[in-house]
Design the sequence.
């Protein structure tokens, strides 16, 4: 038998044992050559070499070398004209989905890198997979740009590779972490202590400030001595502020904070500056059906009841609008109780 006939025989024998691989099969192969835009891979049982494009490398395969033996995902089947197309990225995706499902079942906390805020939440990256954290599952309650590129701890709520759906929760991870450290941190804090913290959530009723890992409540009434419409008028997400601890509830593991008490109490400042029977000027801050609130000093509001606006019955909303400057009489002055009653109808009488 000649050499040519031997070579042909060996080739036919090899082809007779060749296996037909289908898309989505997992095959074992050896990297045999680096090409300009990928790698040639010798796949056990295939007729020809497969090709792994650089685009199909996973984020952990930047150091792929000739001679490496790996498992590959079949992207395209082998034909008489072309070898099969392979992927390592798909292998990594399959492994990542499996790990995420395990994390969900076991309740493990994992790390996610924030990609960008989107409508309704945050887009994140977990092992090259795109995940979503709804706003309701954010510790802040609101997505903001300051989180981009940060790695945050999350819990897996849903991991469905068939639907390519990955839903995560930062809030649950933060709650678990809080339970682990809260007792130790509370032991280091005391009422009237001044501490620094980061604003992590803003709501209509106030804000939550991270104090060494514990979210303390800063009620809207404790943000400013002056009337404000919303906490965001004064503070912003991600901002670091100094606050005073006004209450610690060890049983409920809660702390209450104050920002306004970092400054001097304006009610103490006005003692001695005003007196009953004095006529002063103020600015209308709020109008209600029972009266109007008049700002007579920065951070100090006094009530002008509807019965003290005029001798006859009047509609407060027809008489005043916010921002109006008015002249009023101090009818009752008790700053210790944070109460000042005003009158307009008695201004003339006080001069008599």
Sequence:
């Amino acid at each position: 038998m000649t050499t040519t006939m031997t070579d042909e025989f060996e080739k036919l024998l090899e082809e007779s044992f060749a296996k037909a691989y289908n898309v989505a099969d997992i095959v074992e192969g050896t990297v045999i050559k680096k090409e300009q835009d990928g790698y040639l891979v010798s796949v056990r049982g295939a007729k020809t070499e497969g090709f792994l494009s650089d685009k199909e490398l996973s984020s952990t395969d930047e150091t792929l070398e000739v001679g490496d033996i790996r498992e590959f995902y079949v992207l395209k089947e082998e034909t008489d004209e072309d070898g099969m197309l392979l992927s390592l990225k798909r292998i990594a995706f399959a492994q990542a989905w499996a790990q995420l499902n395990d994390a969900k079942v076991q309740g493990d906390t994992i790390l996610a890198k924030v990609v960008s805020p989107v409508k309704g939440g945050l887009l994140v990256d977990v092992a090259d997979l795109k995940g979503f954290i709804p706003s309701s599952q954010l510790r802040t309650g609101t997505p903001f740009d300051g989180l981009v590129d940060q790695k945050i701890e999350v819990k897996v709520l849903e991991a469905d590779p068939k639907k390519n759906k990955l839903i995560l929760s930062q809030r649950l991870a933060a709650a678990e972490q809080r339970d682990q450290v809260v007792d130790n941190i509370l032991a280091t804090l005391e009422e009237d202590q001044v501490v620094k913290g980061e604003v992590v959530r803003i709501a209509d009723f106030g804000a939550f400030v991270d104090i060494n890992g514990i979210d303390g409540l800063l009620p809207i009434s404790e943000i400013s001595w002056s009337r404000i419409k919303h906490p965001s008028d004064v503070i912003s997400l991600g901002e670091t502020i100094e606050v005073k601890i006004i209450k610690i509830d060890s049983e409920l593991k809660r702390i209450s904070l104050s920002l306004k008490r970092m400054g001097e109490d304006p009610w103490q400042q006005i003692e001695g500056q005003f007196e009953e029977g004095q006529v002063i000027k103020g600015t209308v801050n709020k109008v209600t059906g029972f009266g109007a609130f008049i700002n007579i000093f920065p951070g100090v509001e006094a009530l002008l009841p509807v019965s003290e606006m005029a001798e006859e019955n009047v509609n407060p909303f027809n008489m005043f609008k916010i921002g109006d400057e008015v002249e009023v009489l101090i009818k009752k002055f008790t700053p210790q109780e944070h109460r000042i009653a005003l009158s307009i109808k008695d201004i003339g009488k006080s001069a008599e």
